[in-house]
Amino acid sequence: MADINLIQQQHFVLSVPLIADRILSFLPAKDLYRAAQVCQSWAEIAKKIKRKRKESSCIFWKQDAEMPDEMIITSLTSYVKTHLNEVSTEPALSLNFVTTSADSTVNCIFDGCYPTVLPIQCKTAIISCDGVIGMQGNQCVEVEAEDLVAVSSFFLPKLPGVEMKFWVKKDDDSFKKFISSLTKDQPIKALVLLSTDFGIQTPATKGIDQIMTEQNNHLAVAGAFAEDILLPECSTLAITFAGERVKAASVVINSYVKKIDRLHCPLKRLKNYGLPEDRSFAFMFACVSRGVKHWKEKNVEIKEFRKMFPNTPLYGFYGQGEIGSNTSSEANESTCGSHQENTCHQFCHSYSTVILLVSIC
C-alpha cells in the first residue's frame, strides 16, 4: 500500500507543470525527446524547453601519440557517443572536419555511430583535410598536417528566425537551381562553400558572384578547397544562413601578411563590423602552409582571433586554397584604414586565411 501511495505522490508531483518543467529542463536533448513521448503535457513542456535552448556544441578529438591504431575506432566511437548523448540541443547541422589520415577510420565511425545518436533530419557532412581547427572546452585548438587522427565537429541546432540551407553538388545544373532558389527567398547573410573542384571559374565560385551582384555585395563568404568531401558523388558543399536574426561578416588575411602587427588589421576590421558576440560562432579556413611553416610557431592566428573574440567558438580546417571576401551582410560596413585588400568579386585565394563570423541576434 505504501508503494502505491508513493507512486501516486510521484505521479502527482510530475504532473504539476512548474515542477515537471524544472525537472525536464535538466535533461539532455536525447532524453528530453524520450520524455516528450510520455504524455501531451510533457510534450508541450519539452517543446517550450527546446525553443529556449540555442547553444551550439562541438567535439574535438585527437589521437594520442602513444595510442595504437587498433584502439582509435573504440576510443573515438566512445567519445562521440558520450558527447552526443549529453548535448542539450538537438543538432540540425553537423559539420565534421577530419585529417586525411582519418578517412577510413572516421567513415566507419560516422556510418556506424552517427545514425544512432543524431536526429534523422540532421544534415551531416564530413570533410577530409590537411589539418583541423576546433574547440576543446573553452580553448581553441588546431592540429596541422600530421599522421595522427584528429576530428573537429560542429553541431548547430535549428534556431528561430534563422534559415539554414544545405546543398550537395550533384551536377552543375543543380547548383544553378540552388542559387536561383536562394535569390527568390529572403537575402542570404552568410555562405560557407567547401569544394574539391579546384579553380576560379567553377560553377560554385561563379554562383558566389551572382549572389553578390543581386545582394549589392551584402553577403559574408568563407570556404576552402578540401582534400575530399566524404559524401557519395559530392565535390561541392554549400551552407547558407539567412533570416532577420542573422548578421555576418568575413575577412581575408592575405599572403603578404607575415607579421603579427599586420595580422591585427583584418581582425580589427572584423571587430569593427560590430556584430553581437554573445551568440556567435566563426569559421576559419587557412592554407596548409600558413601554420607553423609560416609563423614559426603554433596557433598564431587562432590566438590573435581569440584575443579579439574571446567568447566566440571557432571551427575550420587547413586546405589547398581559400574562398572568401572582405564583406558584411550589413550595409554600414567599416574597415581598418582606407586600404581594401581585395575587391568583392575576387573570391579565390592562395596562401591565405579566411574568417567568417556569424552572429545570431
TrEMBL record:
Any one biological process term the GO annotation gives: positive regulation of proteasomal ubiquitin-dependent protein catabolic process
Positions of the F-box domain: 22-47
InterPro entries: F-box-like_dom_sf (IPR036047), F-box_dom (IPR001810), FIST_C (IPR019494)
Domain of life: Eukaryota
Pfam families (UniProt xref): F-box-like, FIST_C
Annotated FIST C-domain domain residues: 254-324
PANTHER family: F-BOX ONLY PROTEIN 22
This protein's name: FIST C-domain domain-containing protein
